Prior knowledge:
This protein is α+β, with helices and mostly antiparallel strands. The protein has five helices and four strands. Belongs to the V-ATPase E subunit family.
Amino acid sequence: MGSEGADKIVHEIVRITDAQVELILQEARKDSDEILAESKKKAQAKKTAVLAKGQQQAEREQQRVLADAKMQVKREIFDVKEDLIKKSFGDAEERLKKLADSPEYSDTLKKMIVESAVVVGGGSLEVLVRKKDRALLSGEVLADLGEEISKATGEDTELELSDDVITTIGGAIVRSKSGSIEANNTIESRINRLRSELRFKVAEILFEGAS
């Protein structure tokens, strides 16, 4: 499993997020810095309009308008970032569909199975893959993977191809025979985890300190 293409699909996900996600985060930081200035500008205009009502009331009104304006701008920016995130990951998914049918995919699938099995902890395990990938996992291949997992976990491991198949772009789900422990290492699950992490980071930047 040491070929150059072994990690191609996983690395493609990371490469896409490195290139596009970092840009999203940089823009979010920049937007966050600009929010206060824009909100103060709106609040000052409102304050001027209500000065006739009295200085104290005007100050309270300014603070309220400032808080409302900041939150509104943040929400608008977040919506734009959310659309960009969806597009970035939508594009990534289409490219990964092609990669999952490439010659390098067989090695990558094996690696993803090993990763999942190590998370489960080894032992007597079932492997679930898409229907077309079953042909890639002969008894000999599963035995070799079992030995690799045993070395990594210190637990004697035996892999069995489940009769169940999954609908996925690629990758695998590995679970204990009892079904009590399961590790989902499909391409979709990896994309979704990265998407959730990115959305959290953008929200954290934009709404830090917001109540």
